[in-house]
Amino acid sequence: MHITQLEIDNFKSFARKTRIPFETGFTVISGPNGSGKSNILDSILFALGITSARGLRAERLTDLINSGSAKNTAEVIVSFSDGTRITRRIKRTPNGYYSYHYLNGRLSKQSEILAFLSRHGIKPHGYNIVMQGDVARIMEMSDGERRKIVDEIAGVAEFDLKRDQAMAE
Ligand code: ATP
Ligand code: MG
């Protein structure tokens, strides 16, 4: 399964609704510094449910809304090759924000989104995406820390966690 399309609306530098199709195989996004390449990856992480603003290179989640826009919402829709669409929308309010998740257009709990992703081996907080700076960080890690990443990618970490939970009971 792969991502077939992204629709980015008022998220970060994407002031206008932008549709980005992904063909099968290898995709390269190129452009000058500051043109929004990393923002595209941020938009995917946002839609998949990353909850920390820092993980999306923002101070606060409301900073994800295009700063030049009068609109109070940002929205990203990720379409997958099996036809599933995952949407996340954030709405700024006078006291903070609301965050909404939709699965195929139906308002859903984040747990439903995570369950769908997990069935396909996608972990929003995992190493499906290697962020800018991660490579240097991985190089500087201890052997033990690096091993944890390999375990996670290989799918072993999940069983370690379950074993630890079972032992604790
Ligand atoms: P580099 O090649 O340096 O990695 P890049 O193409 O990855 O650059 P991004 O980090 O995706 O660039 O984009 C940075 C730009 O996004 C900055 O100009 C920043 O002002 C803009 N930006 C970030 N958040 C917002 C926002 N909420 N509203 C408008 N613009 C934003
Ligand atoms: Mg970048």
Automatic annotation (TrEMBL):
Residues reported in the UniProt entry to bind ATP: 32-39
Entry's localization field: Cytoplasm
Subunit structure: Homodimer.
Protein family: Belongs to the SMC family.
Annotated function: Required for chromosome condensation and partitioning.
Free-text comment about domains: Contains large globular domains required for ATP hydrolysis at each terminus and a third globular domain forming a flexible hinge near the middle of the molecule. These domains are separated by coiled-coil structures.
Protein name per UniProt: Chromosome partition protein Smc
Organism this protein belongs to: Methanocalculus chunghsingensis
Gene: smc
Residues of the full protein shown: 1 to 169 of 1147
